[in-house]
């Protein structure tokens, strides 16, 4: 089980192991806002397993613009859907092929299924008569959030709605 960590202002900071969350609570650095039903067993005690914790002190987070694209970040941005046919994607494709001067930027990389990637090869969309389902662009401002928040645990949902 993982635990959602909220900053003192109730905005989501990240996701940690429930063991790390329990340590933060035991050291007085956080409070438990929601518990998972199963406790953490130690040799001397049963400790409640935190699902959501709130830090007592505000942590200032420096957020920068989007970093360089990676295969993982492109697949996450495009929700693992092929930009050409909307089937599940497992690879990344250059819209303008590198052999034709395309770069590895957020605007030129899209998630792609294996079939479309092989079919497209080093050709352009105009040559194939294909179109993109969406225009590739850098990820939204909330993309720094952990991938666990893409499909949050049911105990986290009320706290994420509060933060939004």
TrEMBL record:
Listed InterPro entries: HNH, HNH_nuc, NA-targeting_endonuclease
CDD domains: HNHc
GO molecular function: endonuclease activity
Nucleotide-binding recorded as keyword: no
Protein name: 5-methylcytosine-specific restriction endonuclease McrA
Keywords: Endonuclease, Hydrolase, Nuclease
Xref: Pfam families: HNH (PF01844)
Residue ranges annotated for the HNH nuclease domain, each copy included: 69-118
């Amino acid at each position: 089980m993982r635990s959602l960590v909220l900053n003192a202002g109730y905005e989501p900071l990240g996701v940690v192991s429930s063991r790390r969350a329990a340590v933060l609570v035991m050291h007085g650095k956080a409070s438990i806002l929601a518990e998972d039903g199963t406790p953490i067993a130690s040799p001397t005690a049963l400790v409640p397993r935190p699902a959501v914790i709130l830090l007592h002190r505000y942590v200032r987070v420096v957020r920068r613009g989007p970093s360089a694209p990676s295969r993982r970040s492109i697949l996450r941005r495009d929700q693992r859907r092929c930009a050409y046919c909307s089937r599940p994607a497992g690879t990344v494709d250059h819209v303008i092929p590198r052999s034709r001067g395309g770069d590895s930027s957020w605007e030129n990389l899209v998630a792609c299924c294996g079939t479309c990637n092989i079919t497209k090869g080093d050709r352009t969309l105009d040559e194939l008569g294909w179109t993109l389902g969406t225009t590739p662009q850098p990820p939204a401002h909330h993309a720094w959030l952990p991938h666990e928040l893409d499909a949050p645990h049911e105990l986290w949902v009320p706290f994420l709605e509060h933060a939004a």
